[in-house]
Amino acid sequence: MTEDPVLVRRARIARLTDLGQRVGYGLLGLAVTAFVLGAVVGFSGAVVAVVMASLAAGSVVLAPAIVFGFAVKAAEREDRERSRRQPPAG
Known about the structure:
Blueprint: H1 5-41, H2 45-85
Helix pairs in contact: 1-2
């Protein structure tokens, strides 16, 4: 039995979205941590650069990961609903 190429591609996209969400949220966490550190010890140029860079990179990575994650979940939900609506073969 061969695997459905659509399902294989969807699984690959799901893995990439999981990775993208982890990286994106990690970068946003870094931005928050650097901001709190800067608030406590003072905002130097390096701290501001880390906050800005990690906010920008986190947003760029996280936004598409969230959108594609919702798309994968919607496609899986649609597949489940279609399989329930179809009468059994035979």
